[in-house]
């Protein structure tokens, strides 16, 4: 709702004995150029001191300015804050949260874990192979 519609609605709700608000409290514009005129009034040059002169200027120390703007290392405070609360959630809860935040597209899904097959060893021993050799090839 615009401000003008709101003002009109409030004027309709005013008691009949009371007229408009005092001119100091009114915020209406006189026309489309009123904002520009207000801007120009603010920008009027002040007859104060001339800023091009050096008189009255305080020289700032470059070292002080550097120390003011020097970055502060907050690592220690941040580590204390992070290590202060040692509440660790259950693994099942964290997995649920991660699953909920994961997208539905296949590219967002983690690769399925396949169980590795153990290499199957032979059931036969060396002695069984020698026995088979003797029986099959006839080698003593």
From TrEMBL:
A cellular component term, taken from the record's GO annotations: nucleolus
Stretches with biased composition (Basic and acidic residues): 106-120
Chain segments carrying region Disordered: 1-56, 97-125
Biased composition (Low complexity): 12-37
GO molecular function, one term: enzyme binding
Keywords, sorted A to Z: Nucleus
The keyword rRNA-binding is assigned to this record: no
Entries under InterPro entries matching the protein: AROS
Presence of the UniProt keyword Membrane in the record: no
Principal location: nucleus
Subcellular location: Nucleus, Nucleolus
Entry-linked Pfam families: AROS
Family (UniProt): Belongs to the AROS family.
Name of this chain's protein: Active regulator of SIRT1
Organism: Vidua chalybeata
